[in-house]
């Protein structure tokens, strides 16, 4: 009996080197059972992520096929111009959905550069590892206990990817990867175009079902099951995506990530209770500057075009309200 208890305590007890932390996740990963659970979760998320990517690509391909080869033929109209317009819209929006989704997957979200780590002052690194504090005036914020390395401002450790990600927003299972600084532009554009496609398709099929469009009745009944499935899928997905897309557009306009938003709300609550002041987001340097940090330093038209481009900043130096007021970018 005592051996069972000892084995159990060995599983749930933290390592001798564990230092108390305000983050409960640190305690979990300091135990054997916590590390086992985390390892199993990582493998599960990799398999699950691959399955979700396959599902997403299949659904997008199926919907695209039905749109071009069924829905356009469904319209019993004589106007070639309208069909050409619908074909062009479908081609443009559909291509942007595929393009940005593929780019989200294949673009690395942004790891901490090795050259940047090698440029660190050894004394400052020792100070960070010992005290885990922010060093004023330096190009990094705190020390990552998981990577055992300094991490730049706005970088966070992803426990699924097992690395620090530059300007990490969240880990997305549909990408089997993180949304970070390098692929954030593609992620936001993917959401925008997918939302537009879902709304247009559900509206088109819904109005056709209610008789607002003159459709080929034989073709409608032949593909009725597929068309009904796509209408329900796009309608329900569109409602959800509208809110989710609006949320991420708000984050881009205010220069926040999902993680930073939660942190800023918590800091606002605690500091406003203490001294009745509401702290500002130091990275919110104006709507236009915020947009350019994600979409690039170009005109608004090219923000939404399917182009390959690197982010304009290096990912570890960020303009702040203070630096912009002093004329430093």
From TrEMBL:
Keyword Membrane: yes
Alphabetical keyword list: Acyltransferase, Membrane, Transferase, Transmembrane, Transmembrane helix
Coiled coil: none
Location within or outside the cell: Membrane
Catalytic reaction(s) noted: L-cysteinyl-[protein] + hexadecanoyl-CoA = S-hexadecanoyl-L-cysteinyl-[protein] + CoA
Keyword Transmembrane helix: yes
Enzyme Commission no: 2.3.1.225
Membrane topology: Multi-pass membrane protein
Span of domain Palmitoyltransferase DHHC: 141-262
Pfam families attached to this UniProt entry: DHHC
Family: Belongs to the DHHC palmitoyltransferase family.
Stated name of the protein: Palmitoyltransferase
């Amino acid at each position: 009996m005592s051996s069972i208890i000892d084995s159990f305590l060995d599983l749930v007890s933290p390592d001798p080197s564990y230092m108390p932390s305000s983050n409960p996740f640190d305690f979990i990963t300091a135990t054997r059972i916590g590390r086992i659970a985390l390892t199993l979760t990582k493998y599960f998320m990799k398999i699950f992520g691959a399955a979700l990517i396959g599902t997403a690509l299949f659904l997008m391909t199926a919907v695209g096929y039905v749109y071009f080869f069924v829905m356009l033929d469904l319209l019993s109209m004589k106007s070639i111009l309208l069909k050409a317009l619908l074909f062009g819209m479908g081609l443009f929006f559909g291509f942007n959905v595929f393009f940005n989704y593929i780019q989200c997957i294949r673009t690395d979200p942004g790891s901490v550069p090795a050259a940047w780590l090698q440029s660190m002052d050894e004394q400052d690194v020792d100070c960070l590892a010992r005290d885990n504090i922010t060093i004023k005036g330096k190009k990094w914020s705190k020390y990552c206990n998981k990577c055992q390395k300094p991490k730049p401002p706005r970088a966070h450790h992803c426990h699924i990817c097992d690395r620090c990600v530059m300007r990490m927003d969240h880990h997305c299972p549909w990408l089997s990867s993180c949304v970070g600084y390098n692929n954030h532009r593609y992620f936001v554009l993917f959401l925008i175009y997918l939302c537009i496609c879902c709304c247009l398709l559900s509206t088109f099929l819904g109005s056709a079902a209610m008789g607002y469009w003159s459709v080929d009745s034989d073709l409608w009944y032949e593909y009725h099951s597929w068309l009904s499935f796509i209408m329900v899928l796009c309608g329900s997905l569109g409602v959800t995506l509208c809110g989710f897309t609006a949320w991420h557009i708000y984050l881009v306009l205010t220069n926040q990530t999902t993680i930073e938003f939660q942190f800023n709300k918590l800091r606002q609550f605690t500091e406003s209770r203490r001294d009745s002041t509401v702290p500002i987001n130091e990275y919110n340097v104006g709507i236009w500057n915020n947009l350019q940090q994600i979409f690039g330093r170009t005109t608004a038209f090219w923000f939404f075009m399917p182009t390959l481009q690197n982010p304009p900043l290096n990912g570890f130096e960020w303009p702040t309200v203070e630096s912009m007021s002093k004329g430093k970018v």
